[in-house]
Amino acid sequence: MNKIITLTMNPVVEKATSVAGVIPNKKLRCGSPHYSAGGGGINVSRAIQNLGGSSLCMYVAGGPAGTHLQQLLSNNLIEQKVISIKGWTRENLFVTDTNTNLQYRFGIPGPNVKEEEWREVLKHVDDTIRKGDYLVASGKLPLGVPTNFYVQVSDIVHRKEGRLVLDTSGKALLPSMKSDIFLMKPNLSELSELCGVESISILELERLSKNILKKYPVKILVVSMGAKGAFLATKETNKYIAAPTVHQKSTIGSGDSMVAGMVLGLSQGKALSEMFQYGVACGTAATIHPGTQLCKKEDADKLYEWLLAENVKKNKNITELT
Length: 322
Hints:
Strand content: 15-25%
Strand order of the largest sheet: 5-4-1-8-9-10-11-12-13
Radius of gyration: 20 Å
Distance between the termini: 40 Å
CATH topology: UDP-N-acetylmuramoyl-L-alanine:D-glutamate ligase
Shape: globular
CATH architecture: 3-Layer(aba) Sandwich
CATH class: Alpha Beta
CATH superfamily: Ribokinase
Largest sheet: 9 strands, mixed
C-alpha cells in the first residue's frame, strides 16, 4: 500500500470550552478546556488514524504552542515530521454557549514563516516522498510563504512520481491551480472563486466542473456541498451523491474527514466510485459528534454500507424502468 503524507503549513492548537451565556463586560466562568491538534493536513492525519489507517504528518511548528501540538499528536500515536520555525504556532478558541447551544469560533492568524523555513519544508518533501505515494497538501498558507508554494510542492511530487491531493483556500487557491493535481476537493464557495462567479447551483455543477478540468491540470475533482452531499467529476465521468441524513452536532473537520476517507480508500485500491462514497460517508460521520473529534470508523463504515446499498437499490430501479 502506498504511503500517505500530509502537509500542514499553518497548523493550530484548538482550545474548546463552554460557558452558560456569552455576556459582554463580565467575567465568564468557562468549563474545563479540551485541546486538539488542528489545521488541514493534521486533521486529515487524525481522521486517517481514526479510520484505522496511518500517515506521516508533516508540519511546521514553533514556540510553546508548537511543543503542545507535537505532544497532542504523539498522544494520538501519529507519526510526525516537524520542521521547526521561529514563529509561534497559532491557537484558536471555540466557545459553546450552553444556554443557546451556539458556538463561537475565534481564529488567530498564523506565524510569519521565513524563506529558509519554508524551503526546508520543500527539502523534507523531496527527501520523503516516493513513487506512488500520496501527498495531501491541505489548509491555508501562513504569512511569509509564497502563494505558489503548492506549485513548488507539486513539482517535487510530480518528479518523484507521487500523487498530489490539494485542499486549500484563500490567496493560494488560484496560484495553486498551476499544480499537477491528482485529486482536488474544493467546496462550493472555492469552486465559485475558481470559476469567477458569485455562486453555483447544483444544475451548473457538471458544466463548471468540466470547465475546471479543461482549464487546469486536475485529474479528479470532488466538490463538497455539506449536508447536500458531493459531486465527482473526471474527464470520463460525473457522479452526484446525496449525503445521508444525520443529526449534525458539528461541521468542524467534515471536509478534512472526507479527504481522509478518499485518500485512504485510494491507497487501499478502492475503485473511483467506492472511494467517492467512502469520502462522503467519512465527511458525514464527522458531523455526528460535537467539537473537533472528526470521523470515527464505526460511524463511517455504517454510513458507507448504507450508501453502497442505496446505490444498488437505485441501479436496480433504473434497470426495472428500462
